[in-house]
Every structure is written in C-alpha cells, then in structure tokens.
Give the backbone structure.
Amino acid sequence: MYDVIVVGGRCAGAATALLLARQGHKVLIVDQASFPSDVKLSTHLVWHAGVDLLQKWGVLDALHATKCPPLTAFSLDMGELILRGCPPGSQMGEALAPRRIVMDQVLLDAALAAGAQLHQGVTFEDVIKDGDRVIGIRGRQQDGTTFTAQAKLVVGADGSHSRVARTVSSDDYNVSPKEAGAYNTYAYFSGVKLDGVEFFSRPERMFYAWQTHDDKVIVGIIQPGHAPRVERADVEAQFYSELDTWVPSLAARVRAGQREEAWLGAAIGTFCRQASGPGWALVGDAGLTMDPISAAGITNALRDADTLSDLVHAGLSGQSSLDEALAGYQAKRDAVSVPLLQFAQEMAKLAPPTEDVIKLFVALAGNQVQTDRYFGVFGQTVTPGEFFGPDNMAQLFTQAV
Ligand SMILES: Cc1cc2nc3c(=O)[nH]c(=O)nc-3n(C[C@H](O)[C@H](O)[C@H](O)COP(=O)(O)OP(=O)(O)OC[C@H]3O[C@@H](n4cnc5c(N)ncnc54)[C@H](O)[C@@H]3O)c2cc1C
C-alpha cells in the first residue's frame, strides 16, 4: 500500500514523486518506458520559472554538471525591429534546454534518492476503484504479467494522451484541435553560432534557435497547423528555402554548420482537463497541454508538480482531508496556466500583426524594462495579465510618448 502512485516518470511525474517522497510519503512511480529514456518530440526549453524551481528543489547543480549551457540572452527579430532582453524577477536569471534523456533522469534520480520506488516497463491499463474512489492501478509488465498496486492517491503524469485521465473520465475544456495550433519542424545542428536564444517572427512563420547539450543547437520553424504538409524527403529543402527567404542571417549560420539528427515535426491539440477527483489527480501534460509555440510544457509541468505536491502533503499529513486539499488544485493550476494557454493559442495562429500589435512593439523598442517584462511573459516570471493588462499598457504607451 502506497501513499501515492505516480503514472509517468518524466518531468511532471518524477518531480511530483521527488517532492512527495521528500515529505516522507511512500511513493511508487510506474512508467512503460525503461530509463534512461529520451522524449522523441520536444525542443525542451525550460524557462526561467522552471529553472528557479529546479534550483529550489536542489537539482539544478546536477543539471549544470551535465554541461547544459545556461541561456541568458533572448532576442525577437520582427524584420524591421529587434527586441533584446531577459525576463526579470528570476532567481537564477537563466533558461536551459537540457536533452530530455538527461533532465528526466536527473529528476528521477533525485526522486529515487528521496525514497520513491520505480517500476519501469509497466504499462498502466486501468484504475482500481472502491465505489467511485480510485484506490490503485492495474497494469501490464513487459513479460505480459499483470501488475497491481494500491494507494491513497493515483497521479496521472502520463502525458497528453493520458490513459489515467481517460479511465477516470476527467472532463476536458478549452479544447483546441491541432489544426488550430502551430506545426513545429526542427533538427539538431553542430557548428552553428548563436547569440543566445533567437526568435524570428515573420508572416505566418516563426523561426527559432537555441543551444542544448554537446555544443548542439536546435533550429526550427513554426507554421500554422492548417498549412499543407511537406513530404518527408522534402523537409530539409523546404526548411532551407524558407530560412533563406525570410532570415538570411540565420540561414548563413545554419548552412555553416551540420545537421546531426533527423528532422522532427509535429502539431498537437491543446486542452485543459479536470485536475482531480476522488483518489486521483493529473499533473503536467496529462492535465493541461499547451501549444509548443510557447515552449512552456516542461515549466508548466514543474510548477504543477510543486502545487500538487504541497496540496497532497497537506491532505496526507492530516492538515485536511485529501479531498479537501485537492479541491483547490484545478483553480490554482488554471489561474496561472489558462492565461498562458490562451496566449499560446493566439500566438499559434501566426497571424499578421494588427495595428495595435505593431504599436506595442514600437513602444517596446525604446523601453528596456518593458521589453524585459515582455520576455518575462515567456519566461513565466511576468503573467500575461500583468503585462497586457490595462495598467501596464497605459504605462508603456505613456512612457513611449
Ligand atoms: C514538438 C514539440 C516541442 C516541444 N517543445 C517544448 C519546449 O521547448 N519546452 C517545453 O517546455 N515543452 C515543450 N514541449 C512540450 C513538452 O514536451 C511537454 O509539455 C512535456 O513533455 C510534458 O511532460 P510530462 O511529464 O507531463 O509528460 P511526458 O513527457 O509526455 O511523459 C509522460 C510519461 O508517461 C509515460 N506513460 C504514458 N502512458 C503510460 C502508460 N499507459 N503507462 C505507463 N506509463 C505511461 C511515458 O512513457 C512518459 O514517460 C514540446 C512538445 C512538442 C510536441
């Protein structure tokens, strides 16, 4: 009998398990993967708010020791105008883009060191219930045998296609199909010189590049999800054609380097799901999946893990009942994540800038403090409400006069 079973052992699940195990709870992680294990689709940028959480939990040093370069300079090039800055209000003042095989393992190792147990190679199939309350899980091991375990709480950290969410019939809302989002195509290169994290906004396109482990950089293009798909064999030619046309300065640097890994691409549907119910909770992508144009999923997952583990600890340590403790989880998650999800959904349309947007960027161009605050919306150190709210807009445009 466990206090908590966490299904999924990556950034959301391993972080939740780590925080609960450190509070003295008996935690089991199950995952169908065998670790160390990579994630196929992710450009794995962890923004400032996420890096600060890794520091708060004492795992950032382990990540730095893997020689993942800190990312401290950010630029957004809009053709006529370039904004440069760094999100304010972050303790560590950096983002990171660690390979998932490295970062997920750092979190998992920390969870195991804190006393959590791991059963890998177990595919979760169903919850075990007592009435309407979830009291455990049933899964299948790699040798085909059945695996069962019981707990006071089952946490689904099993990603956007969460089977835990399906089996507990978690309601969804703010649902948006992948065609309404962005299509992301990227590859890893060596020998490409970058000036920090670089974004290039162009009509119906966004290009980006940042450094990761092993002196490699990720370079990608984001296009509307409804745009016609390119045949696999033509992806590279199409990418260079786009880059040459729209951002020749980056094209020259990418052409001077070498592609090291295969092209990857995806568009995903986005949604929020009911965050908890009797004996269960969802964390990370299982509970809320945002368009990757925001590169926010990992930071969100870490923040959810922090929020959820505090509430679960309150429920398990007798400060309140578990149900009472979890009752506020969805509201807490959504207060931060829904405005970001809506902001990402707007960005993912890659619509040409309106007059108001152009005025905003012109005003920002002369104002470093506000430019930093704009980057802070991405770094998740400034909320969309704080930045785009009427008070800040009035202040920005007054300063611009
Ligand atoms: C193209 C693309 C680019 C992205 N780029 C970024 C980025 O730059 N920055 C960023 O922050 N986010 C990015 N994201 C999003 C990010 O990858 C996710 O938000 C993040 O992986 C969510 O982590 P998680 O732990 O919730 O779930 P996941 O990483 O999906 O992990 C889920 C785990 O659950 C396990 N699991 C699933 N089903 C079962 C089952 N039935 N039984 C047992 N185990 C199971 C899986 O094996 C896996 O280990 C991107 C996403 C895409 C698609």
Summary: The two ends are 65 Å apart (CA to CA). The CA atoms of residues 232 and 263 lie 9 Å apart.
